[in-house]
Design a protein that fits this description.
- There is one protein chain.
- The protein is of the alpha/beta class and about 290 residues long.
- Helices cover about 40% and strands about 20% of the residues.
- The chain contains eleven helices and ten strands.
- The strands form two sheets. Strands 3-2-4-1-5 form a five-stranded parallel sheet, with helices on both faces. The chain has a five-stranded mixed sheet with strand order 6-7-10-8-9, with helices on both faces.
- The longest helix is centred in the C-terminal third of the chain and has 16 residues.
- The radius of gyration is 23 Å and the shape is elongated.
- It starts with a strand and ends in a 10-residue tail after the last helix.
């Protein structure tokens, strides 16, 4: 028996008229349609004027692990399985990776119907460099873990792209301003392709203050990469970078070595700045940001 095909289909991120033409044909002919939300799938098929010809099953975070074997068996039996998520491309911060990996393991053909992407759309609209970028997905919800993840890419020179929930946006932008620097350029892209689409551009510090008033909708954040270290960094900036790395879990010796390497400075110079800040903190009231 010839194995079937797994089709990953991109769906509109807002405007249903952005649906790729092939999507309608795949919906009508697939033996199985696995959808992140069957209700949203129903609304999409109505907007496209199509009637799925095969069986419709749910495939979301809560049942992804349990349902994957069932879908793989259907594929192994010759079925054409179409995977769609609520918006954008399956497996990109959405269900799908497990199924793709399992299909590849069984040597089952996997193909795609390219469609809208919030990552690429936001990147293109941001006004920031697009020649090299990396997608970081969603940041951790806990503040400490979020800061740690940001610290890992504080010196990344490629443009960074993140997804974020609107109710966490202010905290995330504030953390980015602290870890990356308040002057680092960024863009908050909201409700892309929808009626109230908005792209807010500016330094992270300004964007954090703006978001503190409350922001609604689907959010993608694009952040400028770290600049080439050609300028001379003052002692306060060196100490700040060491502190960020320490709070992310690095030992002070390792943090000093890393900051020195990034700045192209001798480790002794960074060490002396840290010691001076420590001595100054002992003789002044603590603001919670010094090195102890």
């Amino acid at each position: 028996m010839t194995a079937g095909t797994l089709v990953l289909a991109g769906t509109p991120i807002g405007d249903t008229s952005d649906a790729p033409p092939r999507l309608a044909a795949e919906l009508e002919t697939a033996d199985v349609v696995a959808a992140e939300d069957t209700r949203r799938l129903r609304r999409l098929t109505q907007a496209l004027g199509v009637q799925p010809g095969g069986r419709i099953v749910s495939y979301f975070e809560g049942n992804e692990a349990a349902r994957t074997p069932e879908l793989v068996e259907a594929l192994a039996g010759g079925a054409r399985v179409l995977l769609v998520t609520d918006a954008g491309m399956p497996s990109v911060s959405d269900p799908g990776y497990r199924l793709v990996a399992a299909a590849v393991e069984r040597d089952i053909r996997v193909t795609a119907v390219p469609g809208p992407s919030a990552v690429l759309t936001a990147l293109a609209l941001s006004g920031l460099p697009v020649d090299r970028f990396c997608f970081e997905g969603f940041l951790p919800r806990k503040a400490g873990e979020r800061r740690g993840r940001l610290a890992e890419v504080a010196d990344e020179r490629r443009t960074l792209v993140y997804f974020e929930a609107p109710h966490r946006l202010d905290d995330t932008l504030a953390a980015m301003a602290e870890v990356f620097g308040a002057d680092r350029r960024a863009a908050v892209c909201r409700e892309l392709t929808k009626t109230y689409e908005e792209v807010k551009r500016g330094p992270l510090g300004e964007l954090a203050a703006w978001a503190a008033e409350g922001v609604r909708g689907e959010i993608t954040v694009v952040v400028e990469g770290a600049p080439e270290t050609t300028e001379e960094l003052d002692a306060d900036e060196l100490v700040r970078r060491v502190r960020v790395r320490e709070e992310a879990g690095e030992r002070r010796k390792e943090a000093i070595a890393a900051v020195a390497a990034d700045a192209g400075l001798p480790k002794r110079e960074v060490f002396d700045a840290v010691v001076a800040a420590k001595n100054a903190a002992r003789s002044a009231p603590s603001d919670g940001k010094g090195l102890s």
